[in-house]
Amino acid sequence: MATRAQKDEAIAELIGEIKATNVLYLTDASSMDAEATSNLRRACNKGGIRMKVVKNTLLQKAMERIEDKDYKALFPTLKGQTAILFADKGNAPAKVIRDFRKKGERPVLKSAWIDEAVFVGDDQLAMLANLKGKEELIGELIGLLQSPIKNVISGLQGSGGQKIAGLVKAFSERAA
Predict the structure, then answer these.
(1) Rounded Cα gap, residues 66 and 70, in angstroms
(2) What is the pTM of this model?
(3) 4-131: what fold?
(4) Which of 58, 101, 131, 160 is the most exposed place for a label (fewest CB within 10 A)?
(5) CA–CA separation, 171 vs 30, rounded Å?
(6) Contact (CB, 8 A) for 110 and 82
(7) If you average pLDDT over residues 151-168, what whole number do you get?
(8) Each residue of 85-133: pLDDT tens digit?
């Protein structure tokens, strides 16, 4: 049995880890053998994700002590064995879980916290795996913004200087 000091230390450590990210996935990896668990850890590490098996009561206490975020919606999913996945990208853990599950039924997604949005249930996994990251969305937005400008430039270049000269002449006649 852990002492009160050990529990407090574990809670403080969890608080630090939770505060350091905006992406948390709570999974059920119970009934996975040691080899499968090691393979899952390796897959997580390769994807830049940290996996930690935690006691539900300690995790809930840690979440309750973080004042600027409300994790209450995750509490009902803190049953059975819980492995928490810490990540920087919102869809990274979902992709790892999805790919890992091609070989078995575990891990199961209990819930996820992504930038204060809460997702509950394993049925959310496919949608989470397809979420676009901030970089992808910014890239698409830049592409959309550049498209009209490229069309104008190519339209002006297509008929050479004659179109530009015609526009300049029309504008000068209007002004006069």
Answers:
(1) 8
(2) 0.74
(3) Alpha-Beta Plaits (3.30.70)
(4) 160
(5) 74
(6) yes
(7) 63
(8) 999 988 999 999 999 998 888 899 999 999 888 999 999 998 898 877 7
